[in-house]
Design brief:
The chain is an alpha+beta fold. It has six helices and six strands, in the order αβααββαβααββ. The longest helix has 20 residues. The chain starts with a helix and ends with a strand.
Amino acid sequence: MPMNKTVSMFGLNAGAVWKKLSVQGCLDENKLLEETKLTSDDIFSAVGWLARENKIACECGSYKLGDTNLIPIIGKDAGKVWKVLNIWGETGIASLSKLSRLDEKRVSAALGWLGREDKVEMVSSSDDACTLFRLK
């Protein structure tokens, strides 16, 4: 079965974050943004992906490679996002944030987690103005 574009994109972003952390060690969000040239949504979806793989930890606002301590947060958030998508269908990050009562960074991390589980996919809106997500 071919890899869907969500899994491919999230996986590539996770690889970029993993590579920077493996070379430079512990980095905060701003340094990850600067070093990887990814967007904030991409950074947090990568964090969610890596957390699902038990490869990233957060200490004092910085990320490092190692056994994750993020499962209680991101795993729970992934459940909330999954429920919203199950009820509402195709939805963008801003709507997912409102409906799940999570900030957009936490929604992105939850989408990365769900992407690693191959449970979500990206779809474009009819006008390509924003990216929508739906359950597979």
